[in-house]
Design goal:
The chain is an alpha/beta fold and about 300 residues long. Helix 1 crosses helix 4. It starts with a helix and ends in a 19-residue tail after the last helix.
Length: about 300
Amino acid sequence: MTTWLLKIVVVPLLYFISILPFWLLFGISDVFYVLVYYVIGYRKKVVTQNLQRSFPEKNEKEIKQITRQFYRHFCDTIFETLKVLTISKESFKKHCHFTPKALELIHRFEKQNRAFVGVLGHCGNWEWTSIAHQVYCKVILTGIYHPLSNDVFDKLIFRLRSRFGGNMVTMKDTLREIIAQKKNGIISNLGLISDQTPPPESAYWTTFLHQDTPVFYGTEKIAKKFNYPVIFFSMKKLKRGHYEIDGELLSEHPAELADGVITELHTKLLEQKIREQPFAWLWSHKRWKHKRKIQ
């Protein structure tokens, strides 16, 4: 699809969809679910295989039930994310909030003028987690992201993620950005997603959901280098379009910990949260495509 067609047709259409009320968005999502799950069968083999290997104790009927729930949730997150293009802060607060414990943690470090590293997984609606930080918190959030290959969609997602004042930087520019912020006296929390698939040779390897799994080491490396406290954020889906975000302090002084401790902590917590709401994780991702090299 040519760039001009994306700019003058697709992007305006997405903005139009974004202004629709939630009840209508979820009606469209229901139709989309039928197409994605029953007609197209988008990555159904990947989803089924990931679920079977992650939950060997579940029978075929249970796996199919989680699969259907996942695709319904997956379609909902697409339209919930589009909603961010036009939603007001007041409306967003009616649909997403932090627990008192999570807010206490955030405000505690705000009062101390200390930045922290927030780590999360692809659970619930992860895009809403970063938006929630921008809506509820005074300190800005610097989100670490991978640019999309399509320039038009990359700019659209950039606008969406930074709509309420968020600061987005690419992974390769992260250290440069942190150093510049510290030099200029800017307090900015960092947001990283921990469950993408890293290059196997530079990954931390552990057991995750019964499988040998490579994990990005970046969260721990950044936290230890700058001695930033680490908070694990988890999102619970209450009902369609409504989420609650909790926070768990993993370490206030990560530089004092042995290598691997923080990575193990946030990985195990993520697994725990996935088990609590299995449908809400991004099962369509090819999370286990790499194998550990035998030394």
